[in-house]
Design brief:
By secondary structure, the protein is mainly alpha-helical. The protein contains 19 helices and no strands.
Length: about 400
């Protein structure tokens, strides 16, 4: 029993807490830009249609940074260490946050959103990899649950800060929070598995190796695809919630900002519940399956919400957030699928590629919408995303009891 209690206490060790707080600031910055987009663009002289057009441009710059950063930090995480990359990414997006508070032109704003995207790409993957490697396999799910549930709540703080302070002050707060977190670097130890690998003669962080072997490629692809429903919900149903609310005849005004906040409240609860359930079931796959089925039910409720009040509609947004609240388990499964010499590369690129799937998902939605209408188009895309995720989950192996202390062998 004492050994089990010791393992549970390790869930709240400093590396887990630092990874959780790093992800908290990461999500704060990621969501903050979407919230302050309009006032910040107006402050640099834009108006009207430019608020949408240039806002999309800035979001795309951020996304491009995240895709590039995912590959960069992942490779470096396997070659230089999980800890170094986690703190380097926190430093980069914190400095970019601070600089965002002083932008006066669109080109500078775009460059800083790209830099921020690069920084934002590294923290979660490096943090999850570090936590997965330092905790005993029987409590890994608890550790990643803490990281994700604390981290996702950063979106709630971003919404509250943006409503209370000027947009420039909101960016400064995010930057300062990140830089303060760097002080903890002194006391955090590197993963023992990585330290053992440093002296091994094995290829580390070989991103291309994920595409040169069919088994590795399919493991990697399925690890990405099980997360796709999350960004269908956020990128389509929540982002365009005012339009869907009008089409469904929802009584009362619905704002995208409030829909995002309520969705993230559900996400916090979902991340807690999915982590606990994966430990209860002693299975990652069963927990993810349950949450995918809950997402199906929440999506159905969303489109059956004809004529409901705004409060009921927001409650459905909470349910949608809860259903996709398997984010921590999804990234953990990706990390557990691969050996120590590829683990950070996978755990860092997978969530960023899933975020990048927002682009083809929204393009498919626009295409289906032309022939099926707003609701029909969304349902078609949602059904496709959920079907793909369920198939990929079926193809992935169970990793709850898997020992992570091994290397991927390359020819």
């Amino acid at each position: 029993m004492s050994g089990e209690h010791g393992r549970l206490r390790s869930v709240f060790s400093l590396p887990v807490i630092v990874a959780a707080l790093g992800y908290f600031v990461d999500i704060y910055d990621l969501v903050l830009f979407s919230i302050v987009r309009v006032p910040s663009l107006k402050a640099i002289g834009l108006d009207g249609q430019e608020l949408i057009d240039q806002g999309v441009f800035l979001l795309n710059m951020q996304m491009a940074g995240m895709l590039a950063g995912g590959i960069l930090w992942g490779i470096l995480g396997d070659r230089k260490g999980r800890l170094k990359i986690m703190f380097a990414s926190i430093f980069l997006y914190s400095v970019a946050n601070l600089a965002n508070a002083f932008v006066t032109s669109l080109p500078v704003y775009a460059a800083l959103r790209f830099v921020a995207g690069v920084g934002l790409a590294g923290e979660l993957g490096a943090g999850i990899t570090l936590v997965a490697e330092i905790l005993h396999k029987n409590v890994r799910g608890y550790g990643t649950m803490v990281v994700a549930s604390v981290g996702v709540s950063g979106a709630i703080l971003a919404n509250l800060v943006a409503k209370t302070f000027d947009w420039r002050t909101a960016f400064v707060i995010g930057g300062v929070l990140g830089l303060l977190l760097l002080i903890t670097r002194i006391s955090v130890a590197e993963s023992g598995m990585f330290r053992q690998m440093e002296t091994a003669t094995v290829s580390k962080g070989n991103f291309l190796a994920l595409f040169t072997d069919w088994d590795r490629f399919t493991r990697y692809l399925h690890s990405i695809l099980i997360g796709v429903p999350s960004w269908f919900v956020v990128g389509v149903l929540i982002t365009f919630s005012p339009e869907f609310a009008r089409a469904l005849g929802v009584q009362g005004a619905v704002s995208a900002g409030n829909a995002v906040m309520y969705c993230y409240i559900g996400l916090v609860a979902g991340d807690l519940a999915s982590g606990l359930l994966s430990q209860f079931f002693r299975s990652r796959r069963k927990a993810i399956l349950l949450f995918l089925l809950m997402t199906v039910a929440a999506v159905a409720a969303y489109f059956l919400a004809d004529g409901v009040g705004a409060g009921t509609f927001y409650a459905i947004c909470v349910a949608l957030g809860f259903g996709i609240g398997y984010w921590a388990i999804f990234v953990t499964v990706a990390a557990e699928q691969f050996g120590t010499n590829l683990r950070a590369t996978v755990a860092t690129t997978v969530p960023n590629f899933v975020r990048g799937m927002t682009v083809p998902i929204t393009m498919l939605f626009q295409w289906f919408r032309q022939s099926l209408g707003l609701e029909g188009g969304a349902l078609a895309v949602g059904a496709l995303c959920l079907a793909v995720a369920l198939f990929s989950l079926w193809r992935l192996e169970e990793t709850f009891h898997k020992d992570l202390d091994y290397f991927e062998e390359f020819l």
